Amino acid sequence: MPQTRCYYEILSVEKTASQEDIKRAYRRQAMKWHPDRNPGNPEAEAEFKACAEAYEVLSDAERRQLYDRHGHAGLRQNPVHDFRTRDVADIFSMFNDIFGQQAGGGRRAAARGFDLETEVEIELEEAFTGCEREVEFKRLDVCEPCGGTGAKPGSKPAQCPTCGGQGQVAQTGFGGMFRMVTTCPECRGRRNVVKDKCEKCRGQGRVSTKRKLGVRIPNGISDGQVIRLSGEGEPTPPEVSPEGKGPRGDLHVVVRVSEHERFVERRGADLVAVQPMAFAQAALGAQVSFEGIDGEPVEFEIPAGSQHGEVVVVERAGMTELQSKERGDLHVVLQLVVPKKLTDEQRKLLAEYAQTERVEVRGGEQSFWKKINPFGG
Ligand SMILES: [Zn+2]
Ligand SMILES: [Zn+2]
Fold this sequence. Notes:
- The protein is α+β, with helices and mostly antiparallel strands.
- 24% of the residues lie in helices and 25% in strands.
- Mean pLDDT is 86; it is low at 100-109 and 364-369.
- It binds zinc ion (2 copies).
């Protein structure tokens, strides 16, 4: 078993994560540790490969179950690839369904730049009205001094002598039984090599830059929904176009809606809230007011004879529908609250009331405790 670390930790996901969460986490981690984005950092490459392994296990329902039950030992009968010996470009082509055509690297290099992903957290009130947010993220951009070639200004890159400018090399194994084409180890698929390196990008042709963008989040958005900002991702990979010609990737902004203290649940555009209800209100009925998600009071009636846990539906007092003025309903769950302390008068009245109901209650003990503890209730 190549890895001994916890696969969930490697991808930074919860054990309860859905397949979609795992896929997203893998994409994010793989982009973070991608060797092209961490030049000269062997730890990043090792982490990149560890992520591929973790994903291979957790994305497969059967393997994941075995791993959940027996840990790494559970995978002995169903082993995963040892990614440590694999080429980065090969890993990308293995998980092509995730990275799509944008992954770059060697033979799968595509004209489009990488997509990037970032997260933004908003309050439920902001999801109700829609809001603007500034997101800050890092991306690789074409290095300006060298124009993306990686060569010191004034010099030019030369054709790679190892692959003859092909970007890939062929290897034969088992006496010529199979032929494998891999990314050229010298130029890493870029077809040429740089002798005099540009100082700013150290020959990479790309530099990491910080970017801030305003994002408009529409009203009615749900937790986990993604806003795509097209053309805000990375430029075309250098092995395809050093100057970054061709379309940039996109930026995916994953919107997280925070949990709300009073609106404890959201079901589509409907909201669920809990309303405390005194015994007298439950028995006699009452008109109550509740602060709505729009900040305005919501008036509704607790019907006489309401029971604990019953639900009152207030129509059109829920969330807005996505990009619409239509609203869902508010479901108010009534919660009977029994007072923990009573005044003498309340106790007397309740005891009298109990008599009318002909039920047995404690009365005498309370006055006994009062005698020995004058500060107690
Ligand atoms: Zn080469
Ligand atoms: Zn440069």
